[in-house]
Design a protein that fits this description.
single chain; about 375 residues; alpha+beta; Ribosomal Protein S5, domain 2; four-stranded antiparallel sheet; globular
């Protein structure tokens, strides 16, 4: 599709994981919620075959020169702009013209709020909008998320699941069951205000995922169980066959699974018990901190400060080891935000938001630039 006279703007939200942290790669359900901090790509057509991307938030500039008959080479680098192009190229998508693209983001970077997956989704959706041989079904948010997952996790053999890509594509509040062919169901609950707190501590997502995923999977292999079915009594029968870490991690995963199952029932109820939801956040956080070991002392202090300021509960967000936490604060969000900042974090008052959006605008003046 040749869009020589249109500026294309694609936007996608960040996300927080309400329940099910470190569960998707075990085939267990998760409950993510898209938030109203977004990444946006705004693109104006060029007269050559170059994608020229400006990323001022991280001080980067990227030029991708493409041709009709080959994929991009990675040169020992992980480059999602290239990998998404390559994944679509293998599906038969072709491109006729280049674009100047400006990428901006409100989402805290490398902090567990899926800034990377949101960016991958907007880039993927932009390519699907401008490419040739693209079925309309591929442009649907869930399909975009699946393409991004293939380009991000499968292409580079990374450790994560599909939650980030799907949730930042479809938006809103979702229940995703990875044991049921990644079945996605939107939840009707209308939750109140949250406060996101960025600890501004650096995190190593792949390292943390490896420290939790590997022992969890090895325990299941040794004891021959499925995380969707097993209970604690069965696991205890095989305790002697497992390392202490395998036993501790797998037991924690089962408990978090049960918390998520309880949460989805509450979130489908006609009359939501908001304080019970907050209490489940705290219970989830305790396991993530004490047994999976993914929280940090600073994040724990931020959560304690938020709860003392009137939050109903909260937890670390994302893979852990740094990054963000969130607090459920439908009554006193400003007070909770101030408490988080007093504890050393950067606070954002947030709410649920929609998924990927696409806007097309005709170019009135060919001298227009992405500004």
């Amino acid at each position: 599709m040749n869009r020589q006279n249109e500026i294309i703007t694609v936007s996608a939200p960040g996300r927080i994981c309400l329940f099910g942290e470190h569960q998707d790669y075990l085939g267990l359900p998760v409950i993510p919620m898209a938030i109203n901090l977004r990444v946006t790509i705004k693109c104006k057509p060029r007269k050559d075959r170059i994608f020229h991307l400006l990323l001022p938030d991280i001080g980067r500039e990227i030029k991708l020169v493409f041709t009709d008959n080959k994929e991009f080479i990675y040169n020992n680098e992980i480059n999602y702009f290239k990998s998404i192009y390559n994944v679509l190229y293998r599906q038969g998508v072709r491109f006729l013209q280049g674009y100047d693209c400006l990428v901006t983001s409100e989402i805290p970077i490398n902090s567990g709020t899926s800034s990377s997956s949101a960016l991958n989704n907007v880039w993927c959706r932009f390519l699907l909008e401008t490419g040739e041989n693209v079925p309309e079904s591929w442009k649907q948010p869930e399909a975009v998320g699946r393409f991004s997952y293939e380009a991000e996790v499968v292409e580079f053999s990374e450790a994560g699941g599909m939650m980030d890509q799907l949730s930042t594509a479809v938006g809103n509040l979702a229940y995703i069951d990875f044991a049921d062919d990644n079945r996605l169901e939107f939840l009707p609950a209308r939750l109140g205000t949250f406060v996101l707190g960025d600890s501004q501590e650096p995190k190593d997502t792949q390292k943390i995922l490896s420290q939790t995923k590997i022992p969890a999977l090895s325990a299941a292999h040794k004891a021959n169980f499925d995380y969707t079915q097993i209970d604690h009594k069965y696991l205890d029968e095989f305790k002697s066959a497992l390392t202490q870490k395998e036993y501790t991690i797998s037991r924690a995963m089962i408990k978090n699974r049960d918390i998520t199952r309880e949460a989805v029932k509450l979130l489908k109820a006609d009359d939501i018990d908001h304080k019970k939801i907050g209490a489940l956040f705290n219970e989830h956080q305790y396991i993530l901190d004490k047994y999976l070991g993914i929280s940090t002392p600073k994040i724990n202090r931020m959560l304690e400060a938020a709860n003392e300021a009137g939050a109903y509960g909260g937890k670390i967000n994302g893979s852990g080891g740094g990054g963000c936490m969130f607090a459920y604060a439908p009554e006193y969000p400003q007070k909770v935000a101030a408490a988080i900042e007093q504890a050393g974090g950067k606070a954002y008052i947030i709410k649920m938001d929609k998924g990927i959006t696409v806007k097309l605008r005709s170019i009135r003046n060919l001298a227009e630039v992405c500004d």
